[in-house]
Amino acid sequence: MDTVMGAKLALEKDFASLRHKMDLSDSSPSALNSFEKFPPSLLSVALREDYPPENLEMEFAEAFPKHGEMPMQAIPSDKQRIRGTTVVMRADSGFQQNCTKERAWSFLTQTAPALVIVCNTIAMGMAVDNIPDSAFWGVLELLFAICYLLEFIYKTRTQGMKGYFMGPDWKWNGFDFFCLLLSFTDSLLFFLLLADAIDFSMNSASLIKVLRLARLLRLVRTLHYEFFNELRLIILGVFSGLRVLFWAIVLLFVLIYVFGIGMATIAGEQQAEFSTLQSSMFTIFRCLTEGCAGYDGRPLTETLRMETFREWAGTIMIAYILVFMLVSVGVFNLIMAIFLDNVVSQQNIRKQKEISETALKAEVNIKRVVAQIVSEEEDCELIPEEFDKLDTRSQNKVLEKALSSASITVTRDRFLKWLSHDDFTDTLESAFIDTSIRAQLFDILDADSGGLLSIDELISGLMSMRGDVTKGDIVAISIKVRYFIQLIEDLNAHQPKRSSLKQT
Q: Contact 352/360 with Cβ under 8 angstroms?
């Protein structure tokens, strides 16, 4: 009897300690009532830091049917307010459920279609050398077309027909729809020819070959996905440098043309490699790039120096060295430097343009992840169910109204806690915000050093940190500093007048 009474007193002490550790000013009456209904055995176990959460969940599942069937999700927001105690949370909280939905959406719209396109391209290559007219490849191509059709149906249901064909990505969506029509047209003709439903002719065969080659256009679509972001940057860099590359080729052609005329005039009669202007230019190009060998396989430079122009051997040697250094070391390296500088500058311009064009979308993404975290912390719902069906501007207005009505202030500890969420940091990084300086990030946003940030200050501060420092940022700071200096000078100029007035 004494043992039972001692255990009961110990459990009551644990429960009293638990209630004492709760911040009663933040806890609602429902929170205290929820803890009143807990079995004492579970309350004592919950205070142990070394107790596995998995075992605790199993004991909750076994105990709740015997104690009013209280759901476990009723306690996370209450237990979260316990100070100095290990917090046990379920993995299926609202914020994590929203994050799971976003990851599923990202997989369905970004990763899965890219993988299907890559697999389709590999299958096309394998079909070339393995009976391309076999029914197996036709069925496989039809399966890929069905996958593209499912993606089309999924996007149209989530975005609507208007959002799909007239939204921000209408160009890519139109290209996807065109490729989808090509895929089903190709599959239809293939099975009709396979079943002898139409007459096979050279025109039909040519049409099928053209449609099969057109399927390769879908590879261009992979550049739209984040998975191939680096590949897209390389291809865009090559295209942006085509103008520089063109003029580099013109410069090299002019040099080869000038030297070709000279060598055809000087050594055209003695050497067959310089007998015509065309042969002379191609020989000089080989000597400057691949290797300088004659038709007989011997080094052409040595043939010119020791046989053709024996008395001018030293002059030939010096001339060849100078020309080789001028073209190979000078012109080629200069072309490479200008090409790289052009690619880097164009990439910076494209990045700044992308930052400007995606400003509204980035702001909505930041507000959305903040609203999700606040909804989880405050145990409320800030994002309506029909939110995903709205356009970007409407989403921004809904989030702005919801966050302003919540009257949230962000402290340093709260902001650092938000930075521990992977989805919050991923959203910042996708908006081109540097998160490597997490310790100083709050101080950067807290302009008045008050230790508190409103939601408006947080969002506007994060939006101003997008991208790299540009000349415009430096000029803006310089103008503001100049303005403040002018204000201070004006204040100092009026200060003696005020002091003289006070003395009189």
A: no
Q: What is the pTM of this model?
A: 0.56
pLDDT tens digits, residue range 90-107? 333 444 455 555 666 667
How is the chain split into domains, by residue range? Answer: 2-90, 95-239, 242-356, 358-468, 475-504
Taking CA atoms, 164 is separated from 102, 180, 363, 385, in Å, by 19, 14, 22, 20
Residue 56 scores a pLDDT above 90? no
Distance separating alpha carbons of residues 463 and 445, to the nearest angstrom = 10
d(CA 170, CA 162) in angstroms, rounded, equals: 9
The C-alpha atoms of residue 154 and residue 157 are separated, in whole angstroms, by 5
- Cβ(355)–Cβ(432) under 8 Å? yes
- Residues 256-270: pLDDT tens digits? 999 999 989 988 888
Residue range 184-205, pLDDT digits in tens: 888 888 788 777 655 555 566 6
- Most confident of the ranges 31-40, 118-127, 493-502: 118-127
Between CA 211 and CA 204 the distance in angstroms is 11
The mean pLDDT of the chain is 75
DSSP 226: G
- Tokens encoding 62: 């076994």
Neighbours of 348 (CB within 10 A): 13
Q: d(Cα 109, Cα 115) in Å, to the nearest integer?
A: 11
User: Could you name the CATH architecture of 95-239?
Assistant: Up-down Bundle (1.20)
CB 419 within 8 A of CB 458: no
* CA distances (Å), origin 218, targets 108, 145, 178, 314, 322: 17, 12, 10, 59, 49
